[in-house]
Amino acid sequence: MSDEITPQEPEAEEDAFAPRAEVLAAIRAALDADDRAALNAALDDLHAADIADILEQAGPEDRRRFVALWGDDFDGEVLVELDERVRDEVTGLLANDVLVDAVKELDTDDQVYLVEDLDPPERDAVLSQLDAADRIALEQSLDYEEETAGRLMQRSVVTAPLHWTVGEVIDFMRASTDLPDDFYEVIIIDPAVHPIGTVALGRIMSHPRATPLSEIMNEDFRTLRVTDEQEDVAYAFNQYNLVSAPVVDGEGRLVGVITIDDAMEVLEDEAEEDMKLLAGIGDETLSDRVLSIAKARFPWLAVNMVNAIIAALVISQFEDNIQAIVALAVLMPIVASMGGNAGTQTLTVAVRALATRDLTSANASRIFMRETAVGLINGAGFAIIAGVVSFVWFGNPLLSVVLGVAMIVNMLVAGMFGILVPLVIEKAGADPALASGTFVTTVTDVVGFFSFLGLAGIVLL
Amino acid sequence: MSDEITPQEPEAEEDAFAPRAEVLAAIRAALDADDRAALNAALDDLHAADIADILEQAGPEDRRRFVALWGDDFDGEVLVELDERVRDEVTGLLANDVLVDAVKELDTDDQVYLVEDLDPPERDAVLSQLDAADRIALEQSLDYEEETAGRLMQRSVVTAPLHWTVGEVIDFMRASTDLPDDFYEVIIIDPAVHPIGTVALGRIMSHPRATPLSEIMNEDFRTLRVTDEQEDVAYAFNQYNLVSAPVVDGEGRLVGVITIDDAMEVLEDEAEEDMKLLAGIGDETLSDRVLSIAKARFPWLAVNMVNAIIAALVISQFEDNIQAIVALAVLMPIVASMGGNAGTQTLTVAVRALATRDLTSANASRIFMRETAVGLINGAGFAIIAGVVSFVWFGNPLLSVVLGVAMIVNMLVAGMFGILVPLVIEKAGADPALASGTFVTTVTDVVGFFSFLGLAGIVLL
Question: For the CBS domain, which residue ranges apply (chains A, B) (predicted)?
Fold first, then answer.
């Protein structure tokens, strides 16, 4: 928290949250003039997250000049806000002592977040220059698995023994010199460091000094374990409206605390990950380079290629039918496309509901029945529409019937597989968003082409 | 915050956050025995969000029996956690006085959230039975536009004048009887009720009583305006790691405060909305009924049907080519499918980056160039693979060349339109996730079929 006097001016702009054009122009001018004071002045009003955004959106050459000019003043918070590729680039440009100073300023959870992604030589350089206590604590955090509560947590925790009063905890806080930057509750611990209650700061402040903490503490709180996966952590915060939660080790001893801002970031990341997996994108960021993006997307496209070849193989079984009635080739993508779309709708609902734990074994069979019914109803609707369109177009009533029946079959199958595929993948212990899109589209392509072309062969030839 | 003595037992289960099977069994037994005490006992340890989940996942008949049995004990927090359709059902089942009591218990932001969705008769019943002051305040909140900061905010704010000391603010809080449940900072206001600073509670508590608030307040804070859209609010919390933020009216006067838990929910909702829009799903929840779901998805499928018919029209222009070389019908879906997939990849990245404001006018042209290059590179890669596959399959080198060229063209176009379409939709002031999927697939289908079948006509016939 800063005590600088930078008065807050209410702004009537369209988007008050984006860095303004003047700021960008001032930074540009400072870079061009190689004027460090001017750069610092331009950055003065900006939040670290905005500076990080500016760096991410700049070209590599501007980034290099920016880092060179800002130099020793580089703010560790900016590193925390950068996405991984740009951060790698920037930490590579920073002198080791600047990097160490930047890391030292940070809260312990941010230190872990930053150091875990550093290249081994930089990581060792940073670790070796920290105080022994900080270094050991940081190394302990890094011993926890990635993407667990142990990695997310802040190790500095404000605790109090059960026998303290409101006055004692306030006196303790007044005497402390190393309180964390952000904390919202005091955790009450027993002599064996097990958390036994929490007291929100607002609750402490609204009671007289003599009040024992045991009288105002909340005993119905939730603890997280260091081994909890970060998506479970985010779920708990979201589900139970937590603001902070104690983290305990295998013996139930308090080892840290996770605050809602970290949980919010995980929640956002997990939703983004699902959205990307559904679209066949892996772990890429906007600032990645052309070749690494092309390479990252290639495997997903390759899986789709296999799917497309399977669909082509199905079509090739019916070459004679197409040769006889070329209208089949014209109409067949309609059946496949509608099935694919209906399947994707169901699939997305299912993946999302699994992520938010709204789809569970308690209602899976009811949701399956519902999606099947939805597929049937919309299948029937579009069977009629497609039948009418094809009759107007080709004037062949039997062809319209074949198209309609294939449509119903494919949209019914789309609804069923749209829900079954993610359920099965989840049951198998994998992320239901992963590759389920390709599975479902393969099914709807194969069923769509097979039912339409096969039925046409029986009815029309 | 509850003071009940319900000791926290560390659980070693696979999923410590989901209600356990025993709880569900106990609720079931209580319903079957019509035993209200047993039901209350079963629900005692559960968070309102868990009870809401159980209600959502139950069938309508169980839900009715649950509400009838729980009756007067119904917890208003559970209503807040329910999704809209089930909440409508439940409020319809509750007696008006139970509903009013449930609403009275809530914080003002939750009251607004609940009352805004009530049917007019229920809404009037609730409003008429609130205290005049509460009613007027609630009606004022409802005057703000939906999905704005004015609707999200909590109206009870803990404020202090600039001349107060730490001791005075603590004394004030000790004397207050109506402090909000959750607050993390005190907002310093001038005599005209303009916010001029904030002080985190932890900061107040760690300073001696005599410290003036002006010495420890943070003047570099962010204010929100009542008219700010909720997605901008969520963005500000996420970007600037806010925990709470003052909300001001048109004259810059403090009217409320928004806390991070509300922002987190909005962030989650907005990400979910984008994910669903990309898949062609509107505003449906898992507990909606079959017919309303089928109806909600119908328009999206209809748009896709139009797209599919346009693609069919393109194919029909080349019926003669297909009649002459039926392999064209077999291979053509491969070109369309790969283009559609590559386009969806780019589109999803673009929609997400626009939502997180990582894609701006500062880097749009560079990202466009990059996506074009990625399309070209992967297009070339899959042109070779598809060419080899088709040569092995059909033994026609010219056909392979045609397939390869069409693949490159379509994947290049996919990359370009995958980024252009959402940018244009955003520029036009609409949600870039809306319908952009269909636009892009229409383009890749048309370009895919046209380039492959058209080129085949020129080269092979």
Answer: 217-273
Look at residue B4 in the predicted model and tell me its pLDDT.
Answer: 36
Distance from CA of A114 to the nearest CA of B (A): 17
Q: What is the pLDDT of residue A6?
A: 37
- Closest Cα partner for A160 from A141, A182, A175? A175
* Shortest CA distance from A445: residue in chain B: B333
What CATH code is carried by the domain that includes residue B238?
3.10.580.10
In A, which residues are within 8 Å of B235 by CB distance? 17
Would you say residue A123 lies in a domain? yes
- Please give the pLDDT value at position B72: 81
| Same structural domain, A195 and A300 | no
> Helices (DSSP H) in B279-326: which residue ranges?
290-316, 319-324
Test the A interface: residue of B63, B223, B301, B449 with most A CBs within 10 Å:
B301
Min Cα distance B348 → chain A (Å) is 7
Going by the DSSP 8-state scheme, the letter that residue B161 receives in this structure is E
Q: What is the largest CA-CA distance in chain B?
A: 94
Task: Name the H helices within A317-434.
Answer: 319-324, 327-355, 364-394, 397-427
Residues of chain A with pLDDT under 70: 1-19
**pLDDT tens profile B278-332:** 999 988 888 889 999 999 999 999 999 999 999 999 999 999 999 999 999 999 9
| B174 found inside a domain | yes
Q: Is A360 helix (H, G, I), strand (E, B) or coil?
A: coil
Closest A-chain CA to B314: A330
The full length of chain B comes to 461
Pick from B240, B308, B333: CB nearest A312: B333
Which residue type sits at B79? Answer: L
Q: What is the DSSP string of A69-125?
A: HHGGG--HHHHHHS-HHHHHHHHHHS-HHHHHHHHHTS-HHHHHHHHTTS-HHHHHH
Residues of chain A contacting residue B394, judged by C-beta atoms under 8 Å apart: none
The verdict on residue A214 lying in a domain is yes
User: Which residues of chain B, if any, have pLDDT below 70?
Assistant: 1-19
Structural domain boundaries enclosing A442: 290-460
CB nearest B264 (choices: A57, A238, A334) = A238
Nearest to B279 among A271, A345, A370 (CB): A345
Query: What does the block give as tokens for B50?
Result: 């868990």
CA distance readout (Å), B262 to A153, A215, B161, B284: 22, 29, 27, 21
- Residue A187: strand pairing partners: A159, A198
Interface residue of A66, A169, A205 to substitute, partner B, most B CBs within 10 Å: A205
**Which run of H or E residues covers position B370?**
helix B364-394
**Are B373 and A204 an interchain contact pair (Cβ–Cβ within 8 Å)?**
no
Domain count, chain A: 3
CATH number of residue B85's parent domain: 1.25.60.10
Tokens of A447: 């069923």
**Inter-CA distances, A352 with A224, A277, A284, A357, A443, Å:** 24, 12, 21, 8, 21
Residue with tokens 């500062």: B362
